[in-house]
């Protein structure tokens, strides 16, 4: 997942031209297959070395800087569009979006106002989706069937609403692709700070766990918790988890309960995003990620 291109004053969401070129050159040399995310959610179409590139927010730098580079390498791109900012300062216009569409970019939904959806009422969430769907249909003559949560923030209640309108939905938490969580699919964010070629090499080769479970399953925690449970059909032996929030990382007490791991944190997480990254090395690197929004 990318956001901005060549906008170095925003290092947390930007990728430099040099970094992007290095990423694409490496993936091409390693003979990865590139497909749209709309094809990614059809499991029988997948191979081990399959990559989907997504871009969020439709910043002008995608159109002016990023898109020509993706075209140079003949790589398909999916753009998740929030409609309120279209034509605004530093954002693509409808005519530029139409041009990108004609050049092969797949455009999908990222809400209207790019608000954190778990903080909105059901009526407000529906309005966000329906407004953006209507604007995209009116201006681009397409109806998106995929969705990306703003900030990667979701909840069980939000997911139920999203299911009414879309075939799948994506977060912003790291992890290998798995259709098991069809309405909270992970993506690896790449930016200046986390955009080294070593990171691209490592994440592009990760594998998903089989039928993993994680509790609490609701990615919005109205009441902060220190206790989490992870289970996997592949077994739990060798799994290591790394947990952080805005205050930093956590110490953990790990207890094995039959075929599950009880993970107890040394403190309550603070308000904001809480991220879990659980990995296992076994003839490849398996990677499961999850993001909570803490009240």
Task: Describe this entry's structure for a reader.
The structure is a single chain. With 295 residues, the protein is an alpha/beta fold. Helix content is 26%, strand content 26%. It has 7 helices and 18 strands. The chain has helices at 17-29, 37-40, 60-72, 94-102, 122-140, 156-165, 197-204, and strands at residues 4-5, 14-15, 33-34, 50-51, 53-56, 77-81, 106-109, 146-148, 168-170, 213-215, 220-221, 227-231, 240-245, 248-249, 252-257, 260-265, 272-281, 285-294. The strands form 6 sheets. It has a 5-stranded mixed sheet with strand order 11-18-17-13-14, with no helix packed on it. The protein has a 4-stranded antiparallel sheet with strand order 10-12-16-15, with no helix packed on it. It has a 3-stranded parallel sheet with strand order 5-6-7. Helix 6 links the parallel strand 8 (146-148) and strand 9 (168-170). Helix 1 runs parallel beside helix 3 (60-72), helix 1 crosses helix 7 (197-204) and helix 5 packs parallel to helix 6 (156-165). The chain is globular and about 55 Å long. The mean pLDDT is 95.
């Amino acid at each position: 997942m990318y956001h901005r291109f060549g906008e170095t004053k925003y290092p947390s969401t930007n990728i430099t031209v040099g970094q992007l070129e290095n990423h694409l050159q490496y993936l091409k040399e390693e003979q990865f297959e590139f497909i749209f995310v709309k094809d990614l959610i059809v499991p029988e179409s997948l191979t081990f070395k399959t990559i989907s590139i997504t871009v969020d927010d439709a910043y002008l730098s995608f159109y002016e800087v990023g898109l020509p580079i993706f075209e140079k390498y003949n790589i398909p791109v999916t753009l998740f569009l929030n409609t309120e900012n279209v034509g605004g300062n530093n954002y693509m216009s409808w005519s530029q979006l139409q041009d990108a569409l004609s050049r092969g970019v797949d455009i999908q939904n990222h809400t209207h106002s790019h608000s954190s959806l778990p903080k909105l009422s059901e009526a407000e969430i529906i309005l966000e989706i329906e407004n953006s769907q209507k604007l995209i249909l009116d201006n681009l003559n397409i109806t998106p069937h995929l969705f990306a949560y703003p900030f990667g923030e979701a909840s069980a209640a939000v997911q139920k609403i999203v299911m009414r309108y879309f075939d799948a939905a994506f977060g912003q938490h790291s992890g290998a692709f798995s259709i098991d969580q069809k309405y909270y699919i992970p993506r690896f964010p790449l930016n200046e700070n986390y955009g080294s070629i070593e990171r691209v090499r490592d994440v592009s080769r990760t594998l998903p766990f089989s039928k993993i479970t994680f509790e609490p399953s609701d990615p919005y925690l109205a009441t902060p918790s220190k206790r989490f449970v992870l289970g996997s059909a592949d077994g739990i032996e060798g799994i290591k988890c790394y947990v952080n929030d805005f205050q930093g990382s956590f110490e953990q007490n790990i207890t094995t309960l039959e075929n599950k791991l009880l993970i107890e944190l040394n403190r309550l997480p603070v308000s904001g995003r809480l991220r879990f990254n659980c990995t296992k090395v076994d003839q490849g690197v398996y990677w499961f990620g999850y993001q909570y929004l803490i009240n």
